[in-house]
Amino acid sequence: GKKIKSAYPDVRVIYTRETDKFIALNERAAIANRNKADLFISIHCNYIGARNKATGTETYVLGLHRAESNLDVAKRENASILLEDNFEKTYDGFDPYSVEGHIILSMFQNAHLEQSIMLANSVENAFKKLSHLPSRGVKQAGFLVLRETTMPSVLIETGFLSTDADENFLMKTENQ
Length: 176
Fold this sequence. Notes:
By secondary structure, the chain is of the alpha/beta class. It has seven helices and four strands. A four-stranded mixed sheet has the order 1-4-2-3.
């Protein structure tokens, strides 16, 4: 967040948390949705039970197998417009439950997926240049934080804490 603020002073960074306090996964996505974020970035360190069996970075986007549930989230988020006075005029007749509304939301979802994939590729390319850890590539998954957001979203795994080399690399401030 600090690096983004430094490089792009006009960008407002909204943290889901700034301490090691647990925040429910759906609340993390809800924070982004409530703040009408343009982008959601979830940063993690990977871990598997077997020591020293996996290494590297990977960046995830929403898996297509979860696209329908993501569309349902977008409908729920947008349904609140129906509670507003004069919503028909304000939103030019948009109804999130209509066939037309479904088509519009599907188009947005596809645009978000394309943007998410572009960002994920950029992240992995940067890891290849800046990190000695191998890139495991861009992957799709149905992670809840990706499924519940209504904007382009990525989940970044910066390395494996269950692997000595990755853990040592990640523990150094300059690598973080």
